[in-house]
Amino acid sequence: MTKVIVFNKPYGVISQFSPNPPHNTLKDYIKLPGVYPAGRLDTDSEGLLILTNDGKLQAKISDPKYKKFKTYWVQVEGNTHAEQLEQLRNGVDLGEFVTAKAQVKTIAEPSGLWERVPPVRFRKTVPTSWLELSICEGKNRQVRRMTAKVGLPTLRLVRAAIGGISLDDLQPGQWREMSYLDFIKKFNRS
Q: What is the mean pLDDT of the chain?
């Protein structure tokens, strides 16, 4: 039977089950045997991580060839400008590759967003902005590299959705199991 777990990964947790001191891992939160993350989320990123025991489903969730958008809430240093957003929309040259076009818009800080522990560094003289950024790739530290390249260094990165699956009201460290059929219906809505 296919298991699907929707998890809100806290900041500082490694997206693996094997121990990696001094960091917590998925094993500290999810006690179900046989499920594995479909893709990764950096240790210093937070938010949605989907786990399953089905290898084909893992590929459908994480492989860029399926073109499933992953949506992030990104707190960046500085005020955003139209030219920067346009660069992100058109693809950013990161040296070894040019990113696919992204969907991006400036947003207010997401309502209901939990406090990060430890908090993001605060500087009185440097403003911050929030973006909602959706990509269908997911290469190593891609969102952070994209925003830095256009002059908006990332301060906080929260994955809010993958396809039609979102965090909803899950708090950091919480998870819920979904039936395979419910998952597929919601996942394919995007």
A: 94
